[in-house]
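Entry 0007
Protein: SUF system FeS cluster assembly SufBD core domain-containing protein
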Amino acid sequence: MLDIPGDAVLTEPVRITLSGNDGQLVHGHLLMRAGRFSKATVVLTHAGHAAYSEVLTVLAGDGADLTVVTLQEWDDRSQHLAEHDVVVGRDATVKHIAVTLGGGIVRLNTNATYAGPGGTFEGYGVYFADAGQHQEHRLFVDHEAPHCRSNVEYKGALQGEDAHTVWVGDVLIRAAAEGTDTYELNRNLLLTDGARADSVPNLEIETGEIAGAGHASATGRFDDQQLFYLMARGIPEAEARRLVVRGFFATVVSKIGVPEVIGHLMTAIDQELEGAQ
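Output (structure tokens):
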């Protein structure tokens, strides 16, 4: 259990690393609780070789400001099945950021609910699937309290034969949730033939008294025109591809807000690209 006291303001991120060994089967449940008017960032890293079944419960008290970053940097033989349940208190803000760069099979379900009006949930994600990997991210945002907000943005890149990603975003605006403002976006970049990205945004609205609601999804191949533009200015092809992919991910990665984590992830993305060359 991680308990952040009320009114506490943590200037440095809390770092938790879970490392598997020899592929052992592990079941884990972690409770994160942020007290009233607290502010903190928690970075949860998964690495090594394991079969991990995870439950993460996040409780944000009234007026809290909590950022949770979950990094999946598993060995390619690993399996990770996870459920993250987020409860957003009255006038609280929770930012949940999922980054998946490793693992043979990774499936992460994130559920967000609101304990009172005025809450904000922001769900961001970055994933990069290589040959033979299956990465799946499913989100359910349940707007039951009035005057709450949610914004979801996930971006993924795929390369190699049988690389497969699935993104499903579900937003439910219940009849009592007047004044809701919500949007969800998923974009996928196919870098090679043989890769497949499934993207399914869903939006269910039970009241017309809302501030706004929308969703968008797009999956496309690498933009050869962008590549040509950079190469025409003297940039080698490998470097040009790296710049395009970095730019694709940068807007989401920057929302992490921890400079050393951002730098580490952009380096890891570069290494993913180098591995395919």
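Curator remark: The chain has three helices and 14 strands. The mean pLDDT is 93.
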